[in-house]
Each structure stands twice: as structure tokens, then as C-alpha cells.
Amino acid sequence: MRVLVVGGAGYIGSHMCKLLAEFGHEVVVCDNLSTGHQEAVRWGQLIHCQLSDTVALTRLFSRSSFDAVMHFAASSIVSDSLTDPLRYYRNNVSDTICLLQAMNEHGIDKFVFSSTAAVYGQPKQDVIDETHICLPITPYGKSKLFVEQILNDLTHAHRLRAVSLRYFNAAGADFGGEIGESHDPETHLIPRVLRMAAGDPIKFGIFGTDYATPDGTCIRDFVHVNDLCAAHLRALEFLGRHSGFHAFNLGNGRGYSVRQIVSAAEEVLGRKLNIPEYDRRSGDPSILVASSEKAQSGLDWVPQYPDIRQIIESAWKWHSHPQF
Predict the structure, then answer these.
(1) 282 pLDDT more than 80
(2) Which residues are part of the catalytic machinery?
């Protein structure tokens, strides 16, 4: 297949491009490089394009024929969405509409969308499946849910087939160390721990030690980036057999506490880390874990790298010798 990867210069998008190329697919990357890295585009041609530039989008789709589009481009820092919601609705919703309009005009009917567990809002139970009510509490989560609702409408009004993949916590890096997670600012737990360990001037601490969990710290579900990409590949195959809109959770189905993450990082590094502790942050649930049973049955997807130490080892290979 010839696949357009929107946001293919970013963390998950670049890993997706590598996997697509390894499976023999032809890759074209569309990215404005606002948060992505040109150095990460090693598999496929890079087209520098802003999704809001409808003239450029029309030119891109007119010159190239695509079998499917994968969409990873989005503003994704939850706290930023609270202070600048307009940017999140513009980038995540309006720009996606421009992309979908161009796809519709050029007859492209397969769309894989990078979504998030933030569409669920405050969890009603510790383990979340796709039947959980979607009541997002941040503009980021709302923007992703809006797009899912648009996709559902389009699958009824047009011939679009769409899969939305709701990530929990993407983590880890390419095992060869060629690409990895490189955000500025960095907000994710594992890279913050490892960047601090690597000597970066990054502040990190444990927020809350009195949660209703075995060790008092929050528990989250971490899934290796390569497993996420494998699910996207399965989603492409799924769209060849199924019409309509479909949403799947992607997670390991088990959780690790913040203390367990720190301990696993210390094991990988072979040394103790001095981590300060602070009061809770408002809005952090005690436990947030995915049920991925629907993805396992519907996509025939099972995580291959569920061990947290292996996830951290792959991330450390990158953070100890980053390429960009």
C-alpha cells in the first residue's frame, strides 16, 4: 500500500513509518515540523505541509495516489490545552477537517486516527473498556472526541472507513536506537525520569504518595511504541474488511505505579535516583488502566513488549545517545 503518514516526523509517527517500510509499504510523510524532527524522517519522502493550507493539501493529493491515511499530527499536552484551548481546537479539529475534506475529494476511503484515553475523562472504574462513557474534561480530550464523532458521521455520509486508536501511555523507543521520544517540553513520565538521569536540566518529582494504591502513587498503563504501531498496521488490514467507524483501546491491560517506574529505571541504570516528592496534582485519578480485549479480538493484536523494564531499556538506549 501507499500510505500518507500525517505527523510522521513525530514520536509515534516516525516509528510507524519505519514499521510500514519494513512491511514493504510505500510511505509519504506530511508534517509541518512544528514539533516533529526532520531527522526522524528516514523512511519515506517528507512533504512539508500545514494541514490548514488547503491549496497545498489539494496539490499533495492531486500529485500522489494514496491507499490510506494515518493521522498522528496533533497538539497533545493536556495542561497546555487548558490555557490555550483555541490552538487545540484549531490544530486538532479544524486542521483534521481540512485533511478529511481533501481525502473525500480524492476518493481515499481508509483512515487510521491517533486518539487518546483522555476521551473518557474521569474514570468510573479502574480498568476502562470502550463502553466507558466519554466525558472528556480537557480541551485536548474534547478535541479528540470531536474528531471521532466527525469520523462516525462521515462513515455514514460517505464511503469513509475509519479506525480510532485510543492510546493510554505510549512509551519506549526503537530497539535499534535510531529514533525515540524527543519533546520540548517533555511531559511524559518515563522520558522525564531518564532525561533527568542522563543529566538534562529537567525537574522531575513524584506528585502524590497517598493514593489508594499499594505504594501510594498513581498507577498507569504503559504500552511500547512498537506495539502501538503494530496495532495501526492491524487497523489498516481491518479496514480492508470492515466498513464504518471503529474505536479500540490500546494498552497493556496492566498498570505500573510511579514508584515502580522509578524502581525499574534504577534497575536499568544500575544506580539510585534522588526523586523529590510533592503533593498531589488536582485531577489525577489513582488508577488508569486499559482493557484492550476489543483490540485483541477485533484486530488480532497482542502487545509483544509488555514488560516495563524492556520498555525502559529501549527508551534509555535512545535517551543516553539521542540522535536529534
Answers:
(1) no
(2) 140
Whole-prediction pTM value? 0.95
Count how many domains the chain has. 2
At residue 134, the pLDDT reads 97
Interatomic CA distance for residues 23 and 229, integer angstroms: 12
Q: What's the domain range around 291?
A: 189-221+253-319
Compute, in degrees rounded to 10, the torsion defined by CA atoms 11, 121, 279, 218. Answer: -70
**Residues near 153 by beta carbon (within 8 Å), at least 6 away in sequence:** none
Domain shared by 25 and 92, yes or no: yes
- To the nearest 10 degrees (0 to 180), the angle between helices 189-197 and 308-319 is 50
Q: Which of 1-15, 139-153, 193-207, 232-246 has the lowest mean pLDDT?
A: 193-207
Instruction: Convert the pLDDT of each residue in 285-319 to its tens digit.
Output: 899 999 999 999 999 999 999 999 999 999 999 99
Element (H, E) at 238: helix 225-239
